[in-house]
Design brief:
seven-stranded mixed sheet, single chain, Rossmann fold, 2 domains, 396 residues, alpha/beta
Length: 396
């Protein structure tokens, strides 16, 4: 069922209440999600994006109830990833000659995923326009690496709607569609999680792209992303947040992440948390056991933090595999301007702290020299090292 966004623009997507994982198993979904597609019915009828491959047949059948498919004049493919383009195969089987407007890289992406089927691609770049009648145009804006090389946004004049694709979205199911109807705590929680885990690696590009969009001097009354709520109430608030988040964001927070074998590293983690609260009562402290906590939730808290402490015991002359895999993911997120400390326990060879320090440096953190390396179970001498570690970690 389509839902009106504004005038002759409707939402025609899919709300996925049961979805719990995305990007394979790499991103956790806690509050459902949506794949947002849009139908514009002016003198020319335009479909903006489709939905994820598993829902392609339902999408096409629902679309048929709203419009004769043969009356769709143009299809806009803002991004070739299958959660946006997944219904194209079923749709193009019905209307194979309909022009698809997208970037040159999107042609490569779509044909790479679905094969070369002879579809009628029309390649566009930033500033290109498409007349849709009634005095309205679509203006295309390339959004390279936000978050794929093929991404773009589409702006509709007259109604002043920016179809922003993956930018400004959230993995969050909102039946009522709009940001002013959403639970505000969940909305912003999911928005910052989405940014931290998906878009932060491209933070510098985001800053430049926001400047470019502002320079186009386009009035924006609605931002319609491809996932989550549609921003109609003060839509530029999410753009302002992106500008803030992209600028090496941090709050007065320290996050401690660790794993343990026989609870010795747990004791160190908890004592570090206690000492932070002693030395800086206004600092927020978050503590996570890596193997028991959702990694995307941890990374969101690290994104918000000015410093982190990471711990692991030594196992097989190395760190625990749960921690090494977690650190590999941490590195991909390219966090900036954050300090880090390492801690851990050992029984025999004791390499874990050094390995943690090297991994954190490789991930872009400023690693302090102070550390805690406890032989067997931590005792009073080990705990006595924690105040100096915390002091160095908190030092500005």
């Amino acid at each position: 069922m389509k839902k009106q966004i504004k005038n002759n623009v409707s939402w025609i997507g899919y709300i996925d209440w049961e979805l719990d994982r995305f990007h394979g198993d790499d991103y956790s979904i806690m509050n459902g999600s949506s794949q947002n597609a849009y139908l514009i019915e002016e003198e020319r009828n335009v479909l903006v994006d489709t939905v994820w491959t598993p829902h392609r047949f339902d999408f096409v059948e629902n679309l048929k109830k709203e419009i004769d498919l043969n009356k769709i004049d143009y299809i806009i493919a803002n991004h070739g990833e299958c959660d946006h383009s997944g219904a194209l195969t079923a749709l193009m089987a019905e209307i194979p000659d309909t022009p698809i407007y997208c970037t040159a890289n999107a042609v490569k992406s779509i044909e790479g995923q679905y094969g070369k089927k002879g579809w009628n691609f029309r390649v566009v770049k930033t500033g290109d326009t498409l007349d849709i009648g009634n005095g309205k145009q679509l203006v295309f804006v390339e959004m390279k690496m936000l978050h794929w090389p093929d991404s773009m946004a589409t702006y509709m004049t007259g109604d002043n709607i920016l179809f922003s694709n993956d930018a400004f979205g959230q993995h969050y199911a909102v039946e009522e569609l709009f940001n002013d109807k959403a639970d505000q705590c969940l909305l912003w929680k999911e928005a910052i999680k989405y940014f931290a885990n998906i878009l932060n690696p491209f933070a510098m590009l985001i800053i430049k792209k926001i400047e470019e969009i502002v320079a186009l001097n386009l009035p924006i009354e609605i931002i319609a992303p491809s996932h989550g709520s549609i921003w109609r109430d003060s839509p530029m608030q999410i753009v302002e947040k992106y500008a803030e988040w992209a600028a090496a964001y941090q709050e007065n927070q320290v996050t401690i992440a660790y794993d343990t074998m026989w609870e010795g590293t747990t004791k160190l983690a908890h004592e570090i948390a206690t000492e932070i609260a002693r030395q800086s009562p206004d600092t927020v402290v978050r503590v996570f056991n890596i193997s028991k906590s959702d990694k995307n939730e941890i990374m969101t808290e690290i994104f918000k933090s000015k410093a982190i402490a990471v711990g692991s015991p030594t196992a097989g002359n190395d760190i625990l595999s749960s921690v090494s895999g977690w650190l590999a993911y941490l590195k991909t997120l390219k966090f900036k301007n954050k300090k880090a400390a390492a801690f851990g326990t050992y029984g025999w060879s004791g390499e874990s702290v050094k390995i943690l320090q090297e991994s954190l440096r490789s991930a872009g953190f400023h690693v302090i020299e102070e550390h805690v390396r406890s032989h067997w179970n931590p005792d009073s001498d080990d705990f006595a090292q924690i105040p100096s570690l915390v002091k160095a970690l908190l030092k500005t």
